[in-house]
Each structure stands twice: as structure tokens, then as C-alpha cells.
Amino acid sequence: MPLLITNIGLLVNVREQNQLLFGAAIADLPCIKNAYLVIEDGKIKAYGSSSSMSTVNSQFQIINANGAYILPCWCDSHTHLVFAASREEEFVDKIKGLSYADIAAKGGGILNSAGKLNAMSQDDLFELALQRLNEVIQTGTGAIEIKSGYGLTVEGELKMLRIIQRLKQVGSIPVKASFLGAHAYPPEYKNDHKAYIKLIIDEMLPNIAKENLADFIDVFCEQGFFSANEMKHICEAGMKYGLRLKLHVNQLNSIGGIEAAIELNALSVDHLETMTDGEITMLSNTGTIASLLPTAAFFLRMQYPPARKLIGSNCAVALASDYNPGSSPSGNMNTVVSMSCIQMRMLPEEAINAATINGAYAMQLENEVGSITVGKKANLIFTKQIPSLAYLPYAFGSNLIDKVMINGEFIGMH
Ligand code: NIG
Ligand code: FE
Known about the structure:
Helix content is 35%, strand content 21%. By secondary structure, the protein is an alpha/beta fold. Strand 9, helix 7 and strand 10 form a beta-alpha-beta unit. Helix 6 (193-210) runs parallel beside helix 7. It is globular, with a radius of gyration of 21 Å.
């Protein structure tokens, strides 16, 4: 039976047509006050203002939203949600003064996670990942991208991607997989980069393609990790298998990753804490989305990405959580949205667009999620009673979500 939701205080991000929002367009968040919404077969069927609602007949199951705001669920386009163990010991080391690079140099960081992941069974890893997925759904995430990159061996990378594949099958929200074999050099390849890149290209990629395990390919382009040329080489190999690029660039240093990413027509460049003005200009008006991960900058006590400059230069900005055990041990997109407003001076409307419609584009899910549009999935956030939309990022840390609906059904809240 179709579902009719009445008495919606504000229906947020209502769009007849899909479009990636560049520059100033991101400040325009179309909403309908006092709205209704019709859902059928888990999808959005119709919506409008209550005054325009035709007479309700008994063919609908009716839910009274009692003035709640309804938003499209968050689209988290960058996570590393599959991992074996938390890393709070490094967190304490960082409090004592060690940097992210110091920790990586001591064999901590990504290599620490890789050791633990390779030692754990696929089933155990899957259970942990599924728990995390369900937890982020409860905080309003309705579509997610998940990366490999803690295997760094042929078997380990395949294991991670098979887990993500299982999450696609059993999880209730759309999941996209990125292959991040180029996340770090395993110690045995520290002095032989060519051999590890050969392993990625000749062993990992063909096997991944055979099982159709990845939608995207990612590389951590960073000093001490992969150079821009190494990234290019790996990306070109991935592109031969039809994988679009989502790349870690300019987190700690600017080493040519932006230029290479644009040349390769990357879908997104992610992080961008360290951007030169020249690189911002380069990114202007390109189809490459700037995905900002403010909770990672927060957690590592780094400068935040230059969101205002990027928007001012007509870049398309998205927001994501970077959920991972090393630099952002939280997948809570409400925090990401708050932090973007507080620390990067994004307006609430801009942050909500960046975390929904532009996030959907950053994982090629724009036809399924990211806005209130007829035909898209009814993956929706129902808020508690709030005085205004700006109250959401303002009252950071408060849980303002009353209920989450996925495919037209409320999920069990704990
Ligand atoms: O996006 N920067 C590279 N990768 C992750 C961190 C991974 C880790 O520390 O385990 C990131 O921040
Ligand atoms: Fe990341």
C-alpha cells in the first residue's frame, strides 16, 4: 500500500531535476514548507505542499510527521569502513605529540591496520563491518562508498573487496566499492615500488575485474606513499578495466596529485587540506568533485580544506566522513555537516547539499539517492522537533534524528 506522509514541517532538498552543484549553486537548497510526501515500492512517488494535496482516500497508509523536517539521507562518498581493529593507542601517541607521518614511519598507521586485517577471517571482518554499516545508517547515512586498502596483498585486497560485495548484497543501502591497493607500500616493497605497482596492476586488478569487485580505483598520493607519477600509472591500468578514479590527494602535502587527477578526469579528489591557489584554480569548473573530509582534519589537528575558496572558484564540493580507524574513527555525517559549518564556514544549506546531492554524484548514485526527487529511493531522515534548518549543524553533538527510513521503511532505532 502506498504511504502518505502528511504534516511535514519542511521537506528538504526537493529537486525535479538532478544536477551536480558547482560553486555558488550549492547555496540553493530548495525546500517545501508544510509538505506531504507519497512513497510507493520504497521510492518517492509524489510530493508537494499540503495545500495542494488532493483528497486523501483509503488507498494510502498515512503517517503524520507532526511537523518533523524530512531530509534525504546523507550520502557518504568516502569511507574505509572495513577494518579489523580500532587504533586508540595511536590516538594517545598523537596527544603526546607524534604526527600522523611519525606514526606511519614507526610501522603504525595503515600498516598496523593491514597486519590486523590480514590476520582476521573474512567472516569476522564482515560482521564488524556490517555492525558499523548499521550504526551509520542509524545516524542518517543512506548511501555509502567503502574502500579496500588494508590488505596490501593480493589475498588481503580481494578479501576486503569481497566483504564490501557482501555488504552490497545484504546491506539495506546502496554501497559502492573502491579498490585502494595503493594505500601504502608494504614493508617488503619499501625499496621496490615498481614491484608493488606491478603486483597491483598484474595480479590485483585482473582478479578484481574477474569477480567484478570494484566500482572505482583510489590511490593515496602523498609524500612517503605514492607519487603523482605512480598514481597515474596505477590509475591508467584501472581505467582499462572501466574503473573511475576517486583519489586521496593533498592531505598532507601538495605533490602534483591534483593536476594528474584532473588530467585523468577523476570523479573526485578527496581530502584537499593542503591546496595551493593554483591548484584551486585548476579544479575550477572541472567535473572532478572536491570531496572534503573535515572530521579527518579535526582528528589530526590539521588545517581544514579551503571550502570557501573552492566554492568561490566554482568547484563542485562534496562532504564525506572518511570513516577509518586512523584519521576519522567516526562515520557520523551529522558531525561532518556541523564541522563544515563551524570550521570551514559553509552555510547550512551548502553543507546539506554537499552531504546529499553532491555526495551522491561523488559515487555515481545521483539517480538513486541524494534528493527528494520522484523515482529516487525513499531513504529519508525524519528530524525531532527543530526550530529551523540551521539548528541541525548549530546544535552539534545533539542527536536530532527521530527516525530513519530506508527503502520506504523505518529502521529499528536503538
Ligand atoms: O583517508 N590518508 C589515507 N588514508 C586514510 C587514513 C588511513 C589510516 O590511517 O588507516 C585517510 O585519512
Ligand atoms: Fe580516506
